Amino acid sequence: MFFSIIIPIHNSEKYLRQCIDSILTQTCRDFEVILVNDGSKDDSPRICDQYCDEDTRFHVIHRKQGKGAASARNAGTNMASGEYIVYIDSDDYIEDAMLLADIKKQAEKGYDVICYKFRKYFEDTDEMAACTFSMPAPIEGETIGDYVNRLVKCDAFYCAPWTKAIRRKILVDGGVKFKEGLLSEDQEWYYHVLIGANSIIGIDKSYIIYRQHKSSTSISWTMKNLTDTIRIIMFWKKEIERTNLPDGYKNALLNSIAKLYCNLLIGYTRYSNTDKKNEYNNLKKLAGLMDYHINPRVNTFYKVYKVGGFTALMMVLKIICKLR
Predict the structure, then answer these.
(1) What CATH number is given for 3-212 in this structure?
(2) Nearest one of 21, 20, 18, 17 to 6, comparing CA atoms
(3) Less crowded by CB within 10 Å, the N or C end of the chain?
(4) Contact call for residues 114 and 201 (beta carbons, < 8 A)
(5) Of residues 184 and 192, which shows the higher confidence score?
(6) In which band, very low, low, confident or very high, does the pLDDT at 306 lie, cut at 50, 70 and 90?
(7) Per the database record, which ranges form the Glycosyltransferase 2-like domain (predicted)?
């Protein structure tokens, strides 16, 4: 079995068939699908059973109590037997029948991580948005650090598990799991993946339709979003600096974390709860990450920071957020 496709499911009856049917259109047939029903109270369990009855490549894990997407993905990964793991969210779907075939071509060249693009579908307006970035083409002789830097520079570095295929051996040998209880578990998980990877490539083609529900199109930050992301950034900054990875790869990973950090600063300014003042000092302590400014947004933040300091940067961001 070449691919294990893992779908965490929680009350997804409205979208689940579209998601699964998009997998069945794939020209590459060498896959299994692991459906993880995470305590659904709607018709999702019956839909899962129906597909399993009709196709022996389908397997289902039924859980009476929902434990969250992180736990569901972990359960699916534990059951997987494919050489590569592909994660898909149950409310998204694949728009191109060549996804698995195109991934397999890159996998056969030896790549551990194979990234691909997506388009956003806004459910409330029935509009589709084009992908806003391009995946850089590989350059002969470049290192994994070189390529990660180019991903960061062109804004094509994404932590979401549904934007990539991962060699299962990396997850198994490294004991890589999604950390349960985090609101930013994708970020924490992906750096574990990258630490264990020897190669990465991107396919410059959109395959996934990422559904934006009305509730998800507005920026919604909570204190837990902020604190979890800050802790993840603090942990991985220290972890990467102390590893024995090549310096070029360390710098590339720190460039990627600097991008996450600047995205976090924007989220911080949009979050109105006064409790966020407790995290201000932690954000200020991490300002040195802007020294890794290969990404255009980070570079802009870096210039403002160098001229006016951290307080001035945060004031500028606050004004911009109010104007938008």
Answers:
(1) 3.90.550.10
(2) 20
(3) C
(4) yes
(5) 192
(6) very high
(7) 4-171
The Cβ-side half-sphere exposure at 225, using a 13 Å CA radius, reads 16
The secondary element (H helix, E strand) that includes residue 86 is: strand 84-87
Longest dimension (CA), the chain: 64
Q: How far does Cα 105 stand from its chain's mean position? A: 22
b/e burial code for range 21-48 (CB count within 10 A of at least 16 → b): ebbbebebeebbbbbbbbbbeeebbebb
Give CA separation, 100 vs 6, 79, 106, 286, in Å. Answer: 14, 20, 10, 39
4 pairs with which residues across the strands? 32, 85
Q: What is the DSSP string of 250-295?
A: HHHHHHHHHHHHHHHHHHHHH---GGGHHHHHHHHHGGGGGG---S
Q: Copy the structure tokens of residue 52.
A: 């399993």
Structure tokens at 192: 């574990």
Which tokens go with 303? 């210039």
d(CA 192, CA 236): 9
* Amino acid (1-letter code) at residue 87: Y
3-state DSSP call for residue 301?
Answer: helix
Return the pLDDT at 217: 37
pTM given for the model: 0.94
CATH 3.90.550.10 maps onto the chain at: 3-212
* Residues 114, 107: Cα–Cα separation, whole Å: 7
